[in-house]
Fold these 2 entries.
Entry 1:
Amino acid sequence: MDFKFSVGHGADVAVNYILDNFTPALDAIAAAIGFVTGGIQSLLVSTPPVAGIAILAALSLWRVGWKFAIFALLSLALIDHMGLWQGTMETLSLVLSATIIAVVIGIPAGIAMARSDRVASLLRPLLDLMQTMPAFVYLIPAAMFFGLGAVPGTIATVIFAMPPVVRLTNLGIRQVHSEFIEAGLAFGCTPSQLLLKVQLPNAMPSIMAGVNQTIMLSLSMVVISSMIGAGGLGNSVLTGIQRLDVGAGFEGGLAVVILAVILDRITQSFGKGSSGFLSFLAFRKASGRNQTGSSVRVPADDERRSAAA
Amino acid sequence: MPNHIENLKSNASKISKVSLSNVYKVFGHNSGHALEMAHAGRSKSEIHASTGCTIGVDDASFDIMDGETFVIMGLSGSGKSTLLRLLNRLIEPTSGSIEIDGRDITNMSKRELIELRRRDMSMVFQSFALLPNRNVLNNAAFGLEVAGVGEAERTGKALAALDAVGLKAYAQSRPDELSGGMKQRVGLARALASEPTILLMDEAFSALDPLIRAEMQDELMRLQGENSRTIIFVSHDLDEAMRIGDRICIMQHGKVVQVGTPDEIVSKPANDYVRSFFRNVDVSQVFKAGDIARNSQLTIIDRQGVSVAATLEQMEHSGRDVAIVVGRDRKYHGMISQDALIEKVKAKVAEPYRNAFVEDVEPIAAGESVSNVLGRVAESRWPVPVVDDQGRYVGSISKSSLLETLYRAG
Ligand SMILES: Nc1ncnc2c1ncn2[C@@H]1O[C@H](COP(=O)(O)OP(=O)(O)OP(=O)(O)O)[C@@H](O)[C@H]1O
Ligand SMILES: [Mg+2]
């Protein structure tokens, strides 16, 4: 490396190099992400506010309880009253698509970390970097690679919001009680059966906690990424700042907070209520008695894992 | 007639099912050096002090017979769980060979090992290890599911296994809705569903309270009587070991110090460590009524046309005041006294046997521990008959045979 280059200059050169040589690949990524984001966005935005409010309130009633459902109903009606319904739905669709992408990449990455100490020690600094780098920094390369709009906004959001789901997937799998691992192995599980039938189901509460945190981080990032034209509630906040319009900024901020509270409570209920992966997928009603996996846990010792590998 | 308890307990044949020779397990790095020291006969603590390695199992060599209930006993940290896990290679042996049905498992490939675990062996755990995300049925079917058995077949087999442990009605319950004893029944059903030939049980009943624990031991023995497998059972409880074990293996600091039948171990303990297990043991707790029942009473089979005169003659001849009346299926009917029988015959009563039963004699269950029946035997005028759980006559306990037992063991 030539030390006359400053670090910043190096990053610059790298970005330009990628732009010059990988444009087709970048376009493909943009198309794929655009497909997910666009699909979700057009679905949510085209849903009439009354229907949207009814669906979210019903979800709150089912997963959380009637008091919270009333809160959801009133607060969403307030958003609509403030004229921010469309922005809220744009934001929600960005959050959902970023979360989907983060989960699709993050859970396998977490699994890989749990299964190999080497992968874990490689990924850990990368995760630290992703989490501690100021969120604005992602906006610049995202905008350079993918232009302005929802796609670079989603990508910047994914990078910023993915670490918790990776970390908590890894942690959840490593903390599955060694007797469960032993039971799986003693009955003749292959490594992949062990993962699917024993480790993932038992790590589900932890993974869901990761998903919940990823959603919350996406929401905070989505506001920032409106600076590169991602749209949504961030626009209201941004306009408020630019025009020093406290009212507009406050309304936008309030809508973000309401969305955050509703998303948080609903997603938390999935982590708490059902410890089973399948029951989660099947959206079965959780019974509060189910264990949350908080019992004493001993990481499987290497001896036993090597028998599995 | 062979001793009843022997019948119940032992299905052991003379064929070796599991055979260990010079098996060592060293935990830790630099195990080579530690292994050399172990070969040279250095003790666990010496080896730990100089290499930092822990000897889990130190030169184990013994055979476990087909159909046998083999109990591994020892104090905490003596290597019981390690030894058990070497048998299905949940823990890899450091050296030595372990043969199952004549095949050395220590050099099996991963694939062969998985096959072996699916087909031949299963395991029951101290804290049950039921998967919380599955209902009871799917827990019981777990081994079959993993082995790729089709849904219909595995449900059928899992239900049959649940039925065998009396939990068929709970098939749809979730594990956390069950009591400890019920959970372990599910654990047992899960282990039995794949019809393994070897059952590995690590302190399977230790987490249960004493009553449930005894019940589970009986359950295991009953299942074993119906369909025999080789059971390898880790326990730190002598009463449990005596109760269910055909043979007991005693471990100390990773070494196998003695392998023998409960009787051999009580009567010829290999060293003070083994003896120390028995020091506080109350023999009347260890022995069951069935163990000390003698078949020394006169038995009469109650059937059509049996001659009362001949019976009286027989009693007279052998100098007995009483005799045991059993059915053709050896089911216990009652105890008759000579006096009562003569009286009934004189009075020309129909069915003289039935009417001549001694009234205050109630049979004792074979599984009852001797300590529980001391009082009844002591108070009874006659020897007390003992019956098995199907009501068949096993033998009787007289005051003198009881005293003899307590004296010999004490
Ligand atoms: N994974 C491991 N790593 C290092 N040492 C171990 C490991 N597992 C067991 N040991 C050691 O091996 C020895 C035997 O342990 P083991 O668990 O087999 O004992 P145990 O007889 O089953 O005891 P307990 O009655 O407490 O269950 C102990 O000294 C223990 O510290
Ligand atoms: Mg143990």
Note: The longest helix of chain B spans residues 210-226.
Entry 2:
Amino acid sequence: MITGALRQTGRLFALAAEVSRAVFRRPFQFREFIEQFWFVASVTILPAALVSIPFGAVIALQVGSLTQQLGAQSFTGGASVLAVIQQASPLIVALLIAGAGGSAICADLGSRKIREELDAMEVMGVSPVQRLVVPRVLATMAVAVLLNGMVSVVGTLGGYFFNIVLQGGTPGAYLSSFSALAQLPDLYISELKALIFGFIAGIVAAHRGLNPRGGPKGVGDAVNQSVVITFMLLFFVNMVLTGIYLQIVPPKGG
Amino acid sequence: MGIEVVVEGLTMSFGKQNIWQDVTLTLPAGEVSVMLGPSGTGKTVFLKSLIGLLKPQQGRVLINGVDMVGGAERDIYETRKLFGLMFQDGALFGSMTLFDNIAFPLREHTRKREPEIRRIVMERIELVGLLGAEGKLPGEISGGMRKRAGLARALVLDPQIVLCDEPDSGLDPVRTAYLSQLLIDLNARIDATMLIVTHNLDIAATVPDNMGMFFRRNLVTFGPREVLLTSDEPVVTQFLAGRREGPIGMSEEKDAALLAAELVDPANHRPSGPPVIVPQLEPSPGLPPRAAVARRRERVLGMLDSLPPAARAAIRDTYARGAAAPTPSVPRPGSGS
Ligand SMILES: Nc1ncnc2c1ncn2[C@@H]1O[C@H](COP(=O)(O)OP(=O)(O)OP(=O)(O)O)[C@@H](O)[C@H]1O
Ligand SMILES: [Mg+2]
């Protein structure tokens, strides 16, 4: 059981290494990349936008109510924006990419595997990793970064709107607290997180898709596992990244 | 000219299940070989091991000095470009039309321009009788058509080693006869080393130079076709006759008790005359003679003393008959590749 888990982990890392190497191998599958990018973007943009407005609102309201009790209303804007950009946005993006994009990638690769298409490709001297997995992983990474930008903006606007309209905050205070607490590295770490989460979602989906057990039922199980494994990995990696960031980047307001 | 494939002491297991053990054989360069065996004896696994898709636990598969089992991944990838493998289920790319499927190896491995690719692909499509279906997706055609498209894709680069996994299953008898001719013509044209896995007794009787058979986790025999066709091994005779009586049962091995009961049952002792060996197919008119024929003749006559008497007689018979027939005496080396 434990050795099994370790072995799977090892294979996951091996695939990650193989993908990283294959990224630089020519010819780059540009068309496949565009198609996958478009596909992943199309299944994630709308849900991301719809989720980010209420999410931004919830955070703004919660933070607003807290700061009110603490008598620190002037920091509402900055605090809620930081929470949205640094934590909420990359996680929303990652969950959507894993749930909507990754599951489709996993199912696609898995069914190709059981139809022996991938074997056929290897037999013809073409590496399925270079040909299929690399464009997919790059696509999930690129979509994650773009989507993260979008969710950050929409979430911030949502928070702003609810704070001003529902909690009677003033636009001026909201904006000035922004510059008091937030700094550019907050945006960088957010995008970096999104990039890494996109990579993880792509790799896990590909790994599960390339190794389904048995027939079509195995593909269904693989999709299921890929989503669950990605979620667990994401929350863990998020914790590590957040810890490191808070250690090495000095907070601005302090 | 084809390439010799040398298999040494190959043993394969999936977990605790042993598939076959200690398989040793040589596919002579440019000759056509057929592998028989009841369903589930690991013929497909054997083909996949030859090409390095599955890795047997022991043994080697040597092609041009590259070990397809334990060699470096990079060498294996290079060596695979010499192969054409036709999968049992076609293994076509579901998202591509038949045309794109067949053009795939050309687009990947050659710098040919699109008009030239189109010419070659359409020629192959015509060869396997799929003209008019080239725009369809694999999901929109019949099983037999998928197999023929898989064959066309395997052959499009004029490979030096051709592996076919049950090319006939799903085809009607007429198409199977055409297919036999197609395989022989292909061999005449490009002198490729070929291994065909099949259950079809017509193909087995008319196409190969060499035959082998898997049974009970072993390679029962492999050698010139006369050896297997004249063999008195119960497994072989049962398989070639398609009888129920014999060691092969519905599940791979029969109960020993059942087998013993069958042996004493007088109804099962039907007289069987001496096996009749039908002549091998010749290439279609207009094609060069098969370069492998002369090589095989030399090879087989050289090993005659080591063969069982029945096989020896059959071989002498074949070549005596062959000498009388008007066979062109100067085989040209394979053209086209
Ligand atoms: N990937 C695999 N994992 C585990 N067992 C396998 C795998 N592939 C094949 N086997 C087992 O190996 C055995 C041989 O399978 P194989 O497909 O080679 O049979 P075959 O001789 O080609 O039969 P058929 O004539 O029906 O195609 C079967 O018992 C099968 O269960
Ligand atoms: Mg098979």
Note: Residues B 43-44, 88, 165 surround magnesium ion (ligand 2) (CB under 6 Å).
